[in-house]
């Protein structure tokens, strides 16, 4: 068998350079996972609550060691907040609000005088 000569030229070799990591996607994801539960609680919207659970689970499972070191809150905190938003939005189904005594005035009027 004939020996084959290496035809690669050493002057054309390009060394490997590791690409720069993008940090914008994790910041946006963590922002969504912390603001969506608050929006679901304030607006009492169940769909926003379920979206908050999905985003918070995604950001918690996708966080790296660098993200854990630089983030101000741990990933499981955002999952807990999103679950709390679901509890708040579904709470009226299990504990319906009671109707208070109906008086002629509104809640901003002065209280009626106490009879003697």
Key words describing this protein structure:
single chain, 116 residues, mainly alpha, 4 helices, 53% helix, 0% strand, rod-shaped, membrane, transmembrane helix
What characterizes the major β-sheet?
A: none
- What is the chains' assembly state? single chain
Q: How many helical stretches?
A: 4
Find the structural class using helix and strand composition.
mainly alpha
Number of strands: 0
SSE ordering? HHHH
General form: rod-shaped
What's a quick, concise take on this entry?
It holds the Pfam family ASTER. By secondary structure, the protein is an all-alpha fold.
Describe this structure in words.
- The protein is 53% helix and 0% strand.
- The chain contains four helices and no strands.
- It has helices at residues 24-43, 46-61, 65-70, 75-94.
Any chance you could write out the topology, listing elements then pairs?
Blueprint: H1 24-43, H2 46-61, H3 65-70, H4 75-94
């Amino acid at each position: 068998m004939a020996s084959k000569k290496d035809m690669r030229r050493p002057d054309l070799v390009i060394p490997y350079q590791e690409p720069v990591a993008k940090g914008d996607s994790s910041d946006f994801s963590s922002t969504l996972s912390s603001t969506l539960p608050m929006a679901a609680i304030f607006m009492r919207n169940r769909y926003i609550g379920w979206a908050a659970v999905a985003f918070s689970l995604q950001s918690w499972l996708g966080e790296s060691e660098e993200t854990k070191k630089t983030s101000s809150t741990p990933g499981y905190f955002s999952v807990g907040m999103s679950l709390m938003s679901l509890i708040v939005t579904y709470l009226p189904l299990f504990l319906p609000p009671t109707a208070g005594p109906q008086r002629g005035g509104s809640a901003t009027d002065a209280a009626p005088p106490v009879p003697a």
